Amino acid sequence: MDGIMDLHIHGPEATEAERAVVDAVVGEPAGDRRDLLLPALHAVQSRFGWLPQGALNCICRRLHIPPAEVYGVATFYHLLSLTPQPPTVVHVCDDIACRINGGARICEELAGRECPAHGGWKRSPCLGQCERAPAALVVRAGESPNAFVLPRTTSGAIMASLGSEEARENDRLEPLRRSAPQSGSPGLRLIRRIGQVDPESLEAYRVSGGYAALGRAFELGREGVVREVIASKLVGRGGAAFPTGRKWEAVAKAAVKPHYLVCNADESEPGAFKDRLLMEGDPFAVLEGMTIAGYATGCEKGFIYLRGEYPLAARRMATALAAGRAAGLLGSDILGKNFAFDVEIRRGAGAYVCGEETALFNSIEGKRGEPRNKPPFPVEVGLFGKPTVINNVETLVNVPPIILEGGAAYTGIGTAGSSGPKLFCLSGHVAQPGLYEVAFGPTLREAIALAGGVSSGRPIRAVLLGGAAGAFVGPDQLDMPLTLEGARAAGASLGSGVIMVFDDSVDLGDILARIAAFFRAESCGQCVPCRVGAIRQEELLARLRAGKPIGSRRQELALLQEIGQAMRDASICGLGQTASTAIESALASLDPVPEQGRPS
Amino acid sequence: MSDQPMFTHPPPRASRPPAAPLLPEPKLVDVVIDGHADKVPETWTILEACRHRGIDVPTLCYLENLTPVNVCRVCVVELAGARVLAPACSRRVEAGMDIRTDSPRVRLSRKMVLEFLASSVDLSTAPEAQKYAAQYGARPERYGPPAAPGTLETDRHVGTAQTVAQPVKIDNDLYVRDYAKCILCYRCVQACGSDAQNTFAIAVAGRGFDARISTEADVPLPESACVYCGNCIGVCPTGALMFKSERDMRKTGEWDESKQQKTDTICPYCGVGCTLTLHVQDNRIVKVTSPLDAAITQGHLCIKGRFGFEHVQQREPAGAESPDVKLPEGVSSRFKAR
Amino acid sequence: MFGAGGSTSSFRETEDTDVVLLWGSNARETHPIFFHHLLKGIRRGARLYVIDPRRTSSTQWAHGWLGLDVGSDIALANAVGREIIAAGLAHREFIDHATTGFDTYRHGVEPYTLEYAERETGVPRSLIREMAHAYAGAGKAMICWTLGITEHHNAVDNVLALINLALLTGHIGRYGCGLNPLRGQNNVQGGGDMGALPDRLPGFQHVENDELRAKFERHWNVTIPPKRGWHLSAMFEAMEHKELRALYVIGENPLQSEADQARTRRLLEGLDFMIAQDMFLTRTAELAHVVFPAAAAWCEAEGTVTNSERRVQLCRKALAPPGSARDDIAILYDLARRLGHDWGEPSAEGVWNELRTLSPMHAGMSYARLEAHNGLQWPCYDENHPGEMFLHSRLWERPLNGPRVAFQPVEHDPPVDRLTEEFPLRLTTGRRLDDFNTGVQTSGYRSPLRRGESLDISPEDAKRLGVRAGEVVRVSSRRGTVEVPVRLDDGLRPGLTFMTLHFPDDVATNLLTIDATDPKSGTAEFKATAIRVERR
Q1: Buried residues in A547-568 as b, exposed as e (16+ CB within 10 A)
Q2: Which of B67, B243, B265 to mutate to test the interface with C (most CBs of C within 10 A)?
Q3: pLDDT tens, position by position, C410-457
Q4: Which of the following CATH numbers is that of domain A88-163: 2.30.110.10, 3.90.110.10, 3.40.30.10, 2.60.40.10?
Q5: A508-589: CATH number
Q6: What is the ipTM for the molecules in this complex?
């Protein structure tokens, strides 16, 4: 069906160069391959720094997509530009972890400086580099496009990056060790290779025990693998905590074919960087987890939907895929076991909402990243309308140890209600921000201690658990056990494992305003409660902070609750449903915007 | 064919009238709606089940002839045991569902949705939305007066409410697009797209509060794929899309629906036989629609059916004193030449 | 078809069928709302093949486009038939049960090999074969056509060639199957239903059937001539021979709509007397001796029309007609009175009820039922009859109900207006989405799509002729010359050109067209003119 229609395309034709870029992705008239839209847009964006209309028209013709729909998709993503941009653009993070570590000041400094013609900068939501805040992402378009991160950066470094060909991070292990301070410690399961084993070497991965689990999986057989995962009581590590084994079982048994596997690597939760470090530091483990999942659930095709702001993770995963294919670990007959499986990387293009699983499917399919209503659930109707297993990166990295150790043994790790190891992203005002692995169970206080405690030595004002979609807890809740049940009892959720610590120097109202702005900017705009609710919430917070309530402050707080309730109850997806929880949790107990208003 | 001898006789009649193959009857499932037990076909949506019981469920983005997109969320209902509310328009009934259409959570969400829309969109030509807003007690003034347009990212004025206000788009003689009145219900996109016309001249562009209906690169309609079927106008619930003639009459104050009659007739163009509903005021056609339940059109028309009526009212009337029969040379002065 | 002219199936069946052959039709633009139904079918998995010399917007929805040379339809259809037989895909059971003449047909199509058809039509043999197999192999399949089939000198033969395919495959008389001429005007079908045919009384009752004629004679208390009359082309023939001296033209603009306009003008001007009854003072009406200003039947009068799926529908009066314009029925009643027959008070429903007493296929269609059901499809024999969604289900009844249907072999015969060195280009004509026929009804609204008349030619021909887009050229046929701007259309193959009839006051396309007419239907070969294009 797709690919057959009468198209009406007006406007400029593609130049020779534009056509070549599109052709390289799409090839000859492809029809039926709308899923190549986002890759084609990426290619044009990386070559020219923006999306010229002629190139878009060329994509429309090649993929048989109406121009208005291509425009609708192109305008959905932050990293794509419909207007000319300089070839180098630096995305400077001003989100929570960066703004309290100098990111806000960097933006102020940059605002006062003139950029060269070939470079520019813009503010960015969380880049997922919170353990090395403040950070910026440099994106260079051209014949040899390039993207890299400036960690612990300054306005001077950013200005310099506009002018010079800065070397990328070439050392493969040292930056990883800094980001995962436990690196090299005994007893680690999920991050044991990070900073220790060359992430670009399949051989090194194998020497360190890699791909033993895949061999074991073939011995167990498809059903045996599903049995072990069910027995392990593993639940999804992306935030929703759905039992992974049940998901796999449903897809394995689905009659409709083909089945698809998707690795959700669109980590965009402010404060989260665990999936990034797993992919940067142990990409083969992600791949092995996917391969086992594909085997168990009858998938021949897997996709990694990888956040657009993660260039190094994308490179490492691509390297791993190529090595895996060359070694027969991916392809039409893996290890001679008559099992065909391959993986494709699809890069996001700057849209938090695409981390929502159904929005992610739409994004891969070349549509706007708007979430679908559920039911039907992905295990029945997922990617391309087919039964789909979608798992988060960390979830999949849990799979090899489960297969090797056995599901039952795995339940011995952690607590009765929360089995297994868990990654936490500690950032903000801690001495040693980074990625930490613990067995479910330590208290919040212990986790913070693991990261060296509060960096300033000042008292803790608040901790944000689970990211912008999570909740704030106060210093009185530090003894909360970090388990699913413990967080639930405290009215919070561990979400994607974000623990962001704020000492008492922080203006919590400013943090809330940033969170409100984040959801306003990241709402896809599809449903009314989220599209309008997010901006009304932001406006209301601004009124409170300015000390200019409409009616009384009490009325405003009641209205904020009503807004939150409607967003939570009536939004289509998790973005809208959680867009008010952090703000409401802070207002409930932390008095983030004192009555007298913000001193200005 | 017509001159074959056997056909000088009428063809034999079929023994019984031919009919489409019967589909199996859908299974009935037990549900509870507002405390009343009911048995309904499992193919029904919650909305169908509610309306069948005579329960008023408000809808804005839903329309019978389009695939439900459940984006306005004004139709949400509460399902016992569910974490969040469910859109009645798209959610199918399931055995054992305990549906509440008037719980405090439902009423709150509906009120807030209507309040959100009323505070951000010009609903002056959206009677349905106005009616619901009043019914659910929406108070858009709680968000402050409308902000000056175009201040989303910069110069935000604390205490005002952002709106979708923007200049009206008048780029052709047939219809206008006033997106300050757009609630982003997606109906026009669906009617232009796979639900009817399959032209795809418009789509949703942008994101979040900045999302809007747009042609590619926001070009004027004559530079787009638009074929002016006007099916987008036919489904628009807020008057954002409007016949230019209606907009002009509204501007001059001539538009008066109380003086309009609606008459169904058949389109004079081609042999498909589309039902046209002619909206007539002062013996002039001021708008053309088609009934949603007309089997042939399902409410959709083409450019000729929707806009081609002008010819009948461009005839200069012959004088009352003139006879029915007139020689050509005498006629031409009063009877506009074609 | 098979005794009563009309589409055999309903629009909704196109949503449920498996294969559609859209033959000589650009329904996307000429029948847009029918095409909506077809699109639903395509979205549900139906395959569409479009047979059209031009690569139109309809063809862009097709799984296969067969861009045949103008007027080679029979060569193609016969080759499809031959391939179906050769591949063993003919529906032998249906053929044996309900048809006659299969062997004659089989022999008749034997020379129409795929190779021959490729040569004659220009369509690759693989595509012909693919379509033949798709059509014959489908569980449900239908053929829909428009004027690309019927505006030829051998229009009826073209239709017969398509009917043969349906008989061959049994794609007739079943749900989702059928043969469907898409009517170009809102009451072409109704005109035929009401007996506006040279050989029929209302309800397709043959005037040469004594019993049927007697029924009407008794009812009207008149004597009806027992022989069929003239169709339109024969009327012009008769004018030529001075056998036809007076004409009463109701709602037609033959001066501009008929082929070979110079001849039409001469003949109309030569009449002793002409009445024109129309909403407008058309160019034809300007030649008339008497003009009756008429109401717009679709919105200023009551009555019925019959659509392309045989659905009789009510038209209702929404407006008072301007000035002294009157309802057609009232004018006819008055005229009858002046001629000495008092028919009483004119009433659309009264006339309709009289029809129901005389036409069995309309008997069950009371105004009340038409209103309640949004129209009813004929035949509808009594007030309990639902009307027929599709025709000819009798052919599947066991034992067979009624006579068998005959295959009618036909031979390919290329267009009359031959291409020569002097007139090397083929001109074909058709409609655009936003305009209608001679523009009488559509020139009144301001369509943003309207771009005036043009000679559409392929970029290759334009290059060869050295003409640019927008350049005004002289276009000549054996009958006349017009001047018209050029428009390049890469949907046209080299050698093929296209014009509409929508702007006759600017460009009288029918000065070019040929009045070579089909002897059976009287339709002129508007689709195939030989022309020459010259720079001014």
Answers
A1: bebbeeeeebbebbebbbbbbb
A2: B265
A3: 999 999 999 999 999 999 999 988 888 878 778 888 899 999 999 999
A4: 3.40.30.10
A5: 1.20.1440.230
A6: 0.94
